[in-house]
Amino acid sequence: MDSALEFDQEYTYLPAENTDHYLGQLVEVPFGRGNSMRRAIISGEDDQSEFKQIKRIAKVLIQQPIYLPDQIELAKEMKRRYFCTIGQALKTISPPTVFGVGKRNVRACCLADRELSEDMLSEDLLTSLQQQRVVEMLLRVETAFVQEVTQACQVTPSVLKTLEKKGLIKFFTQKADRELEQPEIWPEPEVEHLNQDQENAVQGILELTDGEQTQQNSKKSNLKEALLFGVTGSGKTEVYLRLAEKTLEHDKTVIILVPEIALTPLMISRFSRKFENKIAILHSRLTVTQRFEQWQRILRQDKKIVVGARSAIFAPLNNIGLIIIDEEQESSYRSESTPRYNSHEIARIRAIHHNALLLLGSATPSVETYYRSQIGKSVRFELPDRAKPAALPKIHLCQMKNELARPDFDGVFSRKLINNLRTTFADNGQAMLFLNRRGLTSTLQCKICGFVIKCDNCEVAMTRHLNQYHRQRDRLICHYCGKIMPVVTTCPLCGSEHMESSGLGTQRVEQAFTELFPDKRALRMDFDTTIGTDAHQRILSEFGRQEADCLIGTQMIAKGHDFPNVRTVGILAVDSMLNTGNFKSEERAFQLITQAAGRSGRSNIQGDVFIQGYDLNNYVIQSAAEQDYTNFYNKEMEFRMRANFAPFGNIGFALFQGLNESNVKSEAEIMYQYLQNIIQTNSQFFGNTMVYTAAPAPIPRLRRKYRYRLIVKSDKIIKIAQLFSLESRRKTVKGVNRSLDINPEHML
Ligand code: ADP
Ligand code: ZN
Ligand code: ZN
Q1: For residue range 157-197, what is the model confidence (pLDDT) as tens digits?
Q2: Which of 185, 368, 640, 710 could bond to 645 as cystine, CB 3.0-4.6 Å?
Q3: Which ligand is nearest the CA of 193, by number?
Q4: How many whole angstroms from 238 Cα to the centroid of ligand 1?
Q5: Which of 592, 611, 641 is the endpoint of a domain?
Q6: Do 80 and 115 fall into the same domain?
Q7: Rounded distance, CA 702 to CA 478, Å?
Q8: Which residue has the CA at smallest separation from atom 15 of ligand 1?
């Protein structure tokens, strides 16, 4: 199973001499004509093989299995659902296998350019299997010590040197003896009594678990799923803690998924305080060795609770009783690389294998999740009120059309918001301004002929940015490929000198803020200001210590953080989040507005939220302003039903990319013909399934590559999975990259 790309089969071997074997064990076997040694995983027992000459397993590499039986089943299931190989699935399930590196400063490496590496890999441009393995590993773990890479990939250091020469990886020095970081425990009073809603949720959820257990030995167990729908601050975490406690009392284990460990310090602190050394926290900052060691501890069942982001769903716990997915609507639960799994689906498969309860928690559930609770696939529990007395914020809509006539209008702030900021600052309160776009302005366009400056590499408009090194010299940056160029003052098409910037970005908001409030300090948090490793944390704690009056930022500031002194929240250019050509953009906008609004009024002083935009009658904005999830849900479902989007229908999305346009186009067309033929010859199975002709993608060129897309719609996911699985085995011409996804987050 050397490289995930080549391995997709089970082979039969005799046991090694005088050795006990277990399912999931890592062994070494002679393979192929030359009998070269390969690593393999024991995936099953076969006592009646018909083969005459069966080779013998050479040796056991690690005595204790590195996969549990249910994980091997899971890998097989993933192959079916995500059209990947078993090797890819197994690699996704567990961290790379390493046996520890010595202490002291050691050489480490990382990818020099992630996208380039992904391209090289998927277009088969890496010349050796060894190189492929290294790039695959670094795509998963970001950085690793050289020794970890050579061990896990079974390559010599010279392979890494070659990759460095090709510009694919970089070396640096890092301290190896980093101890496991202890999670920070925040001083907080313990919650002594649950309130009635929390109590009802805990009791109800426990009954779901108990009820089913009595009839366990009837046929195959059904999925037990619950939704905890509770507004921000309603005390969902407390419900999770009680349920986890009960689960441990029954000698069962718990997995808790959070969108990102670094963004959920309070939750980690509460769990660590309660469960101390029973808990394993899978940080993204763990070294490869630390991660593998944590994994081994979980495998040995030393740990009973695992907390982590997306991939923690694969944790090798036995006897799982409870799986919690907090903030279940977050897009980070979907993997963006092959296999493009979704933590919810994996959680459902594992919950069935273990007869565990799956609990999804959210203040703004995804419509698919809420729908499941409407049609009885899950049971919904609600926490409609905040747990601690806190005045709910007052929401104001600001129609920006009415501001245009104001002589002092700066293009950013409405009168109402300015007045409120003044009062807040006079009272020593803080403010947050949220905007979904970084940079200064979004487009640069000729006022005479309408020409828009686009990136040479991509068919997208370039964004104007302030230049932090030369105050006066703005530049244009492509948000897709990173290309930078000077601002254009003369129209390249008609030669006019009337180039005009429009659309708001975070830098422009910061400028306008400083002009209005010269003696107030603003912090900006967006992609451009958070490049260093700890930049996020630094900005947030500065703001938390009240060293700044205003925090301006993109969606990064909308989530999670609790700043009791924030009185004013501004949500600017709200329209830019809508109608983006992505079927989930309305849902994402609703979630973001709700989250951003939830940042204010975290104490007993009433907060104010200002939503600024032009299209304020939109149902997303209306229902967000009224904090009416049900209204949003009903409208959104009408739209999804009409358009046949999830949960009513499913979309398969195939994307072909490459430098040679005609190759890209013809691959997409070949796929179209291929799928058409399959559907026609198996029309019974593929009822209600449509393939649409190949066409240029909404972004027709990106990073110099042409892009064609092909869409399949069907009533059943499994039908699309079947088609894609066949397609994925079709060889494409070199230099064309194909990616296949079902119900994707983006279709651009
Ligand atoms: P959520 O996860 O739903 O956003 P939290 O679990 O963070 O909410 O709870 C919000 C706050 O309310 C926390 O400070 C928590 O300690 C407090 N809290 C939760 N439950 C109770 C309760 N029953 N009584 C008093 N305070 C509570
Ligand atoms: Zn022009
Ligand atoms: Zn570009």
Answers
A1: 999 999 999 889 999 887 766 667 777 777 777 888 999 99
A2: 640
A3: 1
A4: 6
A5: 641
A6: no
A7: 10
A8: 235
Distance 464 CA to ligand 2 centre (A): 18
**Cβ distance 374 to 637 under 8 Å?**
no
Cα gap 354→251, rounded to integer Å: 13
- Residue 234 CA: nearest ligand 1 atom is 3
Beta 705-714 vs 650-658: how paired, if at all? antiparallel
Do residues 692 and 719 both lie within one domain? yes
601 ligand 1 Cβ < 6 A = no
Structural domain contains residue 337: yes
In the chain, what is the straight-line distance between the N-terminal and C-terminal CA atoms, in Å?
34
Mutate to test the pocket of ligand 1, among 185, 188, 191, 359 (most ligand atoms within 8 A of CB): 191
Mean pLDDT of the chain: 88
364, 590 contact by CB (below 8 A)? yes
The SS3 of residue 409 is coil
Residue 333 near residue 310 (C-beta atoms within 8 A): yes
How many independent structural domains does the chain possess? 6
The predicted structure's pLDDT at residue 6: 52
Q: Is the CB of 117 under 6 A from ligand 1?
A: no
Proportion of the chain in helix, strand, coil states, percent, rounded to 5: 35, 20, 45
Nearest CA to ligand 1 atom 6: 235
Residue nearest to atom 10 of ligand 1 (CA): 233
690-705 tens-digit pLDDT: 999 999 998 999 988 9
CB 104: neighbour CB atoms within 10 A?
Answer: 8
Residue-by-residue DSSP string for 304-370: SEEEESGGGGG---SSEEEEEETTTT-GGGB-SSSS--BHHHHHHHHHHHHTPEEEEEESS--HHHH
Residues 514 and 560 in one domain: yes
Domain hosting residue 360, numbered range: 196-383
Which pair of tokens denotes residue 359? 């609990």
